[in-house]
Structures are given as C-alpha cells and as structure tokens.
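Long-time lurker. I teach an intro course on protein structure, and each term I like to show students one example going from raw sequence to a predicted 3D structure in token notation. This year I'd like something fresh instead of my usual example. Would anyone be willing to generate the tokens for the chain below so I can use it in lecture? Attribution to the forum is fine with me.
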Amino acid sequence: MKITLILAHPLRASLTGAVADAVRDALAGLGHTLHFHHLDAESFEPRIPAAELTARRSDDPLVERHCAELAAADGIVIVHPNWWSQPPANLKGWLDRVVRPGVAYDFARDDAGRSVPVGLLRARAALVFNTANVPQAQEQALLGDPLDTLWRKCVFDRCGVKTVHRRVFAVAAAATETQRAAWLQEAQDLARA
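-- Reply from a regular --
Happy to contribute to a lecture. Here you go:
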C-alpha cells in the first residue's frame, strides 16, 4: 500500500517527531511504500498565492508532488502538536494548498441544486496523532474536541475517507521516559493495525 505520512513540528527531536519516526518505522517494516514529509524540513510554503486560489494546479513543484502522492495514497497519517486547539500554521497551509478541489474533493449538485462536496481520495483510512500539553479531558470539557472535528468531519469525511483514527498523547511536557516509550510503542501498534 501507498501511505502518505505528514509531520508538522519545527523541532525534529520533539515527541511529535519521535511519534512520526515510530510510525514510519512500523509502516516501512510492513513493506508499505511510504511518502514521508516533514513540512518544516522541506520549508513547505503555507501561504497560498492568489493565483492558486482559482487554479486547479500549483506552480510550486513541491505542492504538486504532495498533491499527486495524496491522490494516490491508500492511507494517510498526520502527526502534529495541538497548538491553540489547532494544527501548526504550516499544516493548515498544507491543507489549503494540497487537500483542495480537484485533488481531494470536488463539488457536485444535489437534487435540490445545492453544491455538495464529493470525496476524491482513494485512501481507505487516516490516522492522526497529536501531542498536547493540556490533558485531553480538560480540552474536552472546555472546548469539545476541535481537532477531532477538523480531521474527522471537515477534512477526511469531505474527502471520502470514512475510517479515521485519532490518538492524543498528553501531557507531553510532563512525560517520563517510560511514558514516552509506551506512547511510541502505542503509535507503532496503531500504525500496524
């Protein structure tokens, strides 16, 4: 299978980076074709140029490469920290520029003439890993779960990916080496499953 793995965290040695590495190793060990992208290392430009807003293509070869790999992926893995209940800016820009009409979804008219999204992605499943410094129960009590809504409903459901698994590792800043090792093992186990 072809898997697209996206990491968004500026510190490669972070827990977030370690989770991406653990997932990458687990998937490679199963023989999958893996397209791994560390957005920060690639200097992925998150700002969408005005001309790209109405175009079906980008003039940026890196964006076009990401689009082609995403469209061909059988599975998608996203790894990022929870910053202000959102993904980092470069990952939001990746969504804007890569997960776009003509690549990940398009619009059709329903029987009432309304425009409705139609998913184009061939991926059967998506896996999202988040690191956070707020306990998940506290985030849930205060805000619900904005990241779950974003990934499950706003992104993957719209793009035709109906199986979405998400795991939050928190509280990252207080994790012991034992806790960190357990989280990395869990990330590998979830990727293999």
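Some talking points for your students: DSSP finds seven helices and seven strands in the chain. The chain has a mean pLDDT of 96.
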